[in-house]
Structures are given as structure tokens and as C-alpha cells.
Specification:
Blueprint lengths: L4 E6 L7 H11 L10 E6 L2 H6 L14 H4 L7 H13 L9 E7 L6 E6 L3 H14 L3 E4 L15 E7 L9 H22 L8 E11 L12 E2 L16 E4 L5 E3 L7 E3 L13 E10 L2 H11 L2
Parallel strand pairs: 1-2, 1-3, 3-6, 4-5, 5-7
Antiparallel strand pairs: 4-6, 7-12, 8-9, 9-10, 11-12
Length: about 300
């Protein structure tokens, strides 16, 4: 059997510099991370943006993998062209085709280390289960948001994002680099165990399912009239109760939550989301019993 092919992407956003630095050091020292004999394709997602220290040149690369953009024939947008190139080179039918994709990111919010998956593909749920069982990381299930589409890993048969934070944009930080290295190393080990039949799936998968995103309160001109309340800042993954402070105005007036159920915030005050008018996203905790069909479909992908 040929080795499992895995696309590893760093620098999808050019101002997230820790994973690209890790890739550079890994190329200089191959023993830094054990490849476990997997067929790894390491790429910088947006090298033009990385060289300029920007999140992107023209548009967000991690929103540029929508089918209509990939199928367009006359786009001159840097990130759309790059998305097409990555799919052409490493997509399921690409020149160097990969079955799995792992996209490495960092965040300015206090998310710690986490896994992000998009939708409920059985193979994604199966791999997320393995990594969560191994590392105990929270899993953010992003689905049902029509304003946020076109993510990179959705274009591979199986794919997930590893998020590490908090770290300011453009700043190299030793602890973030080490957490990225450990999470990536453990993920590759999980895939390697799959290939040799040694993987042991857990009984359940704990998810935080995306419910909605909230913007700062704004006036009729679109200017913020309140900011995030200090009691919520830095409290990613901690449930918000009904009546909890959410925002505060300059005069001290507090805007409180009116949620009818307990929700869990993530990406609180993420710097990159200011332009998207997202102050935080809200999730609901779900516990899914592990479905053996997930493992069946994953094995089918592995050995097809």
C-alpha cells in the first residue's frame, strides 16, 4: 500500500507567522517532527502575503475556495489564483494529489489549542475524534453560516484546521510554535496509526457547534457604540449564562446577553475578524456517540 498523502499548509494568512517559521525549521532539521513515513506535501498557503506580512493581498485565501471562484475563468484576484493553483497541484485530482489536508493557523483570541472542522463529513468527524482522544482538544464545528464559506480544507476528501493561540499577528512566540509542533506531530501520529490498523477510536466526540456570530453594537453610520465587556474578554470556551455582560458603552452602560440557552463563545475579539464585523462567535456544546460508519468511510478513503 502506498503511504497516506497529506497536504500540510502554513501561512494561509500571511500575518500568521509561527507555523511558516516551524516549516522552515523543519526543513532544516527533518527530525524536528516525525513524518511517520506519511507522504507529506508542505506548502505555504499565501507566500505573497507572508512576504509582505499581510493577512492577504486582495482577499482572504481561506474564503477563496468556493466552487464558483474555483470555476471562474477571468479572475485576477491573487488569492483566487492561488486557491486554484493549490487545488490543481494537491487536490484529489491534482498533480500531487493528497487525500488529507491539515491547515495550520494561529489566533489572537484566547482559544488555546483547538481543532476546527467544517460540516459533518464522516471522515472529518472520525479524524477529529482520534485527535481529541489523543490530545483532549476542543473541536469547533463550523457549519450553517452563509456569510463564511470557501474554506481550504473543504476541497480535500478529509481536512481540518489546527488553531493555536493567543498570539498577536506577525509575532513569533516560542510557546505557540511548540504547541503547533506538538499538535501537528500528534495528528500525524494518529494518521499513521490509521494506516497500519492501530487506531483506537473513542466512544464519543465532543463538539462545539457554531450557532451564530455577533458584531459590536453599532450606530446608523456603522461605528461601534460599545466594546466587549471585560468579563467576557479572554473567556473563550467558557459558557455564557443568560444576563451575562457582553458589551459595555463608554458611559458604563452594560449590554447583557438574552440567550435562552447556555452558549459557549469562541474567537472572542479575534483581530482578523474586525473586518468581517465579528466580535465573537457563539457555539453550543454537543456530545456525539462515535458512529462506526465514520470509521468505515475513513478506512474506505485510506485504502481506495
Amino acid at each position: 500500500m502506498s503511504p497516506i498523502s497529506v497536504l500540510l499548509v502554513a501561512g494561509t494568512h500571511g500575518n500568521e507567522v509561527n507555523a511558516p517559521w516551524l516549516f522552515d525549521q523543519w526543513s532544516r532539521n527533518p527530525d524536528l517532527i516525525d513524518s511517520h513515513d506519511l507522504e507529506l506535501k508542505k506548502v505555504i498557503g499565501n507566500p505573497a502575503a507572508l512576504s509582505e506580512g499581510k493577512r492577504y493581498i486582495h482577499s482572504d485565501l481561506n474564503r477563496s475556495f468556493r466552487k464558483e471562484l474555483l470555476n471562474s475563468s477571468n479572475s485576477s484576484v491573487q488569492e483566487v489564483l492561488r486557491a486554484k493553483e493549490l487545488v490543481r497541484l494537491f487536490g484529489p485530482n491534482g498533480k500531487h494529489s493528497c487525500k488529507f489536508a491539515i491547515d495550520l493557523h494561529s489566533t489572537t483570541s484566547s482559544m488555546g489549542s483547538s481543532i476546527v472542522i467544517y460540516g459533518r463529513r464522516s471522515v472529518d468527524l472520525a479524524v477529529a475524534s482520534l485527535i481529541q482522544y489523543r490530545l483532549g482538544l476542543p473541536v469547533y464545528l463550523h457549519e450553517g453560516d452563509p456569510n463564511q464559506q470557501g474554506f481550504l480544507v473543504e476541497n480535500w476528501p478529509c481536512g481540518l484546521v489546527i488553531e493555536i493561540g493567543p498570539v498577536p499577528q506577525g509575532v513569533l512566540k516560542a510557546s505557540i510554535i511548540e504547541k503547533t509542533r506538538l499538535a501537528l506531530s500528534a495528528s500525524l501520529d494518529c494518521l499513521a496509526k490509521l494506516s497500519c490498523g492501530e487506531a483506537r477510536f473513542p466512544n464519543q466526540l465532543v463538539l462545539h457547534r457554531h450557532i451564530q456570530s455577533l458584531d459590536l453594537p453599532r450606530d446608523s453610520d456603522g461605528q461601534p457604540i460599545a466594546v466587549l465587556h471585560p468579563e467576557i474578554q479572554g473567556r473563550d470556551w467558557q459558557p455564557i449564562e443568560h444576563g451575562s455582560p457582553l458589551f459595555i458603552k463608554a458611559n458604563g452602560e452594560i449590554i447583557r446577553s438574552n440567550f435562552k440557552e447556555k452558549l459557549v463563545p469562541v474567537f472572542i475579539n479575534e483581530a482578523a475578524y474586525l473586518e468581517k464585523k465579528i466580535a465573537l462567535s457563539l457555539t453550543k456544546r454537543e456530545v456525539l456517540a462515535f458512529d462506526q460508519n465514520w470509521a468505515v468511510e475513513l478506512n474506505s478513503l485510506l485504502f481506495s
